[in-house]
C-alpha cells in the first residue's frame, strides 16, 4: 500500500512547490525524496569532454511522484468529465490573461 504525501514528506522546513505537493496529497498520490549522490558528470559545452564533479550538500530535497508523472495525469483525467476535455483544439488567451 502506498503512503500518502503527508506520511512521506519529512517536514523539516517549508518545501518548494507546496501547492503541487498538496494536490498530490489530495489525490492520494505518494511522493518520495530524490536520491542524489555526491558526484555528477558535468559537460559545460558539447565540444568539451565531460567532467566528474563533486556536488555540494543539498539542504532542499527534491521529490519524485510515485508512479511517475503519468500517475498524476491519469488521476486528474479520472476526475474530469469526458465532455470537458478538448483534443486537437486551438486555445486562445482569455481577456483576463491578456490584460494582466
Please report the distance between the alpha carbons of the first and last residues: 44 Å
What is the number of E strands?
4
Series of secondary-structure elements, N-terminal to C-terminal: HHEEEEHH
Q: Could you list the spans in which at least 5 consecutive residues all have pLDDT below 50?
A: 1-12
Strands in their spatial order, largest beta sheet: 1-4
The largest sheet, given as strand count, sense and whether it forms a barrel, is:
2 strands, antiparallel
Report the radius of gyration as a whole number of Å: 19 Å
Strand-pairing-aware structural class: alpha+beta
Global mean pLDDT: 81
Strand % is: 5-15%
- Integer count of domains: 1
- Please tell me what the overall shape is: extended
**What is the percent of helical residues?**
25-40%
Contiguous helical run count? 4
Amino acid at each position: 500500500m502506498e503512503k500518502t504525501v503527508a506520511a512521506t514528506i519529512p517536514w523539516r522546513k517549508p518545501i518548494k512547490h507546496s501547492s503541487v505537493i498538496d494536490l498530490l496529497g489530495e489525490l492520494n498520490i505518494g511522493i518520495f525524496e530524490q536520491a542524489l549522490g555526491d558526484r555528477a558528470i558535468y559537460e559545460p559545452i558539447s565540444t568539451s569532454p565531460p567532467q566528474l564533479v563533486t556536488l555540494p550538500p543539498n539542504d532542499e530535497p527534491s521529490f519524485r511522484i510515485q508512479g511517475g508523472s503519468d500517475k498524476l495525469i491519469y488521476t486528474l483525467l479520472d476526475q474530469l468529465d469526458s465532455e470537458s476535455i478538448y483534443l486537437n483544439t486551438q486555445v486562445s488567451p482569455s481577456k483576463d490573461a491578456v490584460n494582466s
